[in-house]
Amino acid sequence: MLLPSPSLLVFVLLQGSPRTPPGAGACETVERVELAAPVGAREICVSPGLATNLRFDAPAIVELQDEVRFEQVLRDRRLLTLMPPPDMVAGERLRLTVHFEGEPSSSGITLMLVGHSGQATHQVEVSRDERTRESLRRELLQERARTAQLREALARAEAILNRSSALRRLIISRALGREAIQSREFLQSPIGYAESELTVRRGASYRSNTTVALDVWLENAGTTPWTVVGAALSVNGVPMEGLSWEATTIPPGKTARVVVEAPALRGEPQGNVTLRLWEAGPRAINIPDITFP
């Protein structure tokens, strides 16, 4: 079964999410600003009741718009701690300008403190020069950790989506009809068929409205593992198109299943059907006498 791509999954999740009001977007816990690479006014998330610290890599001079409104402002030559105004509303903007001691004010940078509700950037690191290797390393580790968290969240969302909507997707795609999924177990042939140290031990064929599938259990009598790298389902010697399969490795002396699926209309395929499975090496098995419900 095909799984939804991450981009499609994110699109679906976003479509079902409420729209974000102004001033309520996601806020970074740590922001980094370099004066050596200015990109215009940077926005910093602040929120009443939450402190935001600005750290400077050299003594700095800071000017704060409407400073008298702020609940608290603590200054040091390399550190500024501020608590926004208690009446600051989401989306409100207050200007903060920074320039380093001994340099003209025109060489500084402007930061916009943007009001948010219940979320704020905890720390802003302002650098006069390009950042050190250690600073870049710390940021890289933080980004890797955040990427891992996003991947875990995406995997959980995909698992929930697959569990909750698998049957619904079958119905919508018309793969599942009133006759549901038909199946037919291998009762005689090709059970016992052997080739290249592989033996068919059991299996079944399946049919939906739009596809046919085979679930074949093979025993590996060889001394090395056997891994499926290719599969073909042929009708009277003509391969069916669109075949897909699950990659399977069978250890020596063990039995494992191989599942293949192909598009097919009702009543097809008809005739002499053969399933061929092969590994990267010389071993392959051609299973004859395949029938479908």
Q: Level of helix content?
A: 10-25%
Separation of the first and last Cα atoms: 20 Å
CATH topology descriptor of the largest domain:
Immunoglobulin-like
Put simply, the count of helices is 2
Indicate the CATH architecture of the largest domain. Answer: Sandwich
CATH class call of the largest domain: Mainly Beta
Profile the largest sheet.
Answer: 6 strands, antiparallel
Number of β-strand runs: 21
Q: Spans of 5+ residues with little confidence (pLDDT < 50)?
A: 1-24
Helix/strand-derived class?
Answer: alpha+beta
**Count of domain modules:** 2
Give the C-alpha Rg.
Answer: 32 Å
Order of helices and strands: HEEEEEEEEEHEEEEEEEEEEEE
Percent of sequence in beta strands: 35-45%
Shape: elongated
Overall pLDDT metric: 79
Structure description:
The protein is built from two helices and 21 strands. The protein has about 290 residues and is α+β, with helices and mostly antiparallel strands. It has two domains: about 130 residues, Immunoglobulin-like, CATH 2.60.40; about 110 residues, Immunoglobulin-like (Sandwich), CATH 2.60.40.10. Strands 10, 11, 12, 13, 17 and 19 form a six-stranded antiparallel beta sheet that branches. The chain is elongated, with a radius of gyration of 32 Å. The two termini are about 20 Å apart. The N terminus is likely disordered.
